[in-house]
Design goal:
Blueprint (H helix, E strand, L loop, with lengths): L1 H27 L5 E5 L3 E5 L8 E6 L3 E8 L2 E5 L5 E5 L3 E3 H13 L7 E5 L3 E4 L8 E5 L4 E11 L4 E3 L4 E2 L5 E3 L4 E3 L4 E8 L5 E5 L3 E3 L3 H4 L6 E13 L2 E11 L11 E8 L4 E8 L4 E11 L5 E10 L5 E9 L2 E5 L8 H8 L1
Antiparallel strand pairs: 1-4, 1-7, 2-3, 4-5, 5-6, 8-11, 8-18, 9-10, 11-16, 12-15, 13-14, 16-17, 19-20, 20-21, 21-22, 23-24, 24-25, 25-26
């Protein structure tokens, strides 16, 4: 009798634990297969996989869920609050994708911003350049992103419809009229961007409009803005006006350089308008461009910008410039001599 009384509490505790385990198992009916993250802006959780269903709840972009079951195009998931339901599997990203986004964000958290861009459409943040690469977060039309870097990726091959038949040297038909053939893939530009929440990913460059003031944008002359910086401000009456550095390139994707020209726009306080104080072409430029302030003795503190330029051998060197309004001059490093091409232009 005494032994029974001593073991009773242990028996009761074991019974409670077993009952709790059974309850949890019965509540879901499935064990956790994996962890996933919602890759759509918002998705519905269904009570069943059928044309007619009830809505159990909704999940949002980036939300963590536990996957309990797979069935064709759907997965049964459970949220952190315990809500369960079926969701289309195309709206889920795996743990590897989530980790990749976190690493990309961490690796580029201190990169200097080259410009601000505005999205033309809803756009995915990809882990690497390419339309078919993995993504987790989706940004909405009109959202702003900080542009950090540029890269290129192959376009998806398109199908070209042949309008006439061709023949082989032997006279046999090579392709029938109206037949389809894959076109050779080209390259398209991608921006590495950071959104307002600090998340980093690659976005298709053509989906981003670089945010440049209209007073400067009108001087683009058909070129594409790659980066844009405010160097300093000048006083014009009762207002301050920004003086700017614009980094541009030809309006084509897949170029072997990030930019090939720069322009400095200063403000003429007498005529109350922007003027081009400096222009340089034929650069094999590489991002990032950096802007800072430096003290130059008698001239005082002046805005400085540094360009990274690649030579024919692929070596990258830095070129420093200072703005002492309205003059822009190259700042040579100790022992550095001006390039011959620059000297010739000055003599002319």
């Amino acid at each position: 009798m005494r032994c029974f009384r001593q073991s009773a509490p242990r028996f009761v505790l074991a019974s409670v634990l077993i009952a709790a385990s059974v309850f949890i198992a019965c509540r879901s009916g499935h064990r956790v297969l994996e962890v996933a993250y919602v890759s759509a802006p918002q998705a519905t959780l269904r009570d069943q996989v059928a044309a007619v269903y009830n809505k159990n709840g909704t999940v949002k972009n980036g939300e963590r869920v536990e996957v309990l079951e797979h069935e064709k195009r759907f997965a049964r998931v459970r949220t952190a609050s315990g809500i369960e339901g079926w969701i289309e599997q195309r709206y889920l990203a795996d743990q590897k994708t989530y980790d990749g986004v976190q690493k990309l964000t961490q690796d580029n958290q201190n990169d200097p911003v080259q410009a601000t861009g505005v999205l033309r459409n809803d756009t995915n943040l990809h882990i690497s350049p390419g339309r078919e690469t993995e993504h987790l977060y989706q940004l909405t039309q009109g959202a702003k992103v900080a542009i950090l870097k540029r890269d290129t990726a192959e376009k998806q091959p398109t199908v070209v419809i042949s309008t006439r038949a061709t023949t082989t040297p032997g006279g046999r038909p090579n392709a029938k009229k109206g037949s389809s053939q894959p076109a050779a893939p080209g390259l398209e530009d991608w921006w590495l961007g950071r959104d307002s929440a600090g998340r980093v990913g690659w976005v298709l460059a053509r989906m981003v409009d670089v945010d440049v003031p209209i007073e400067i944008a009108q001087y683009a002359e058909g070129q594409r803005f790659v980066a844009f910086f405010v160097l300093n401000e000048v006083q014009d009456g009762d207002k301050k006006v920004s003086q700017c550095l614009a980094v541009l390139t030809e309006p084509h994707d897949g170029l072997p350089y990030d930019f090939d020209q720069v322009r400095v726009f200063t403000w003429n306080v007498k005529r109350h308008r922007y003027e081009t104080a400096y222009r340089e072409h034929k650069l094999n430029g590489v991002l990032p461009v950096t802007v800072t302030t430096e003290n130059f003795d008698k001239e005082g503190a002046l805005p400085v910008f540094v360009l990274r330029v690649k030579d024919d051998s692929g070596n990258v060197s830095e070129r420093k410039y200072k703005l002492n309004t309205p003059i822009v001059r190259r700042v040579l490093a100790p022992g550095e001599e001006p390039a011959r091409s620059v000297t010739k232009r000055r003599r002319r």
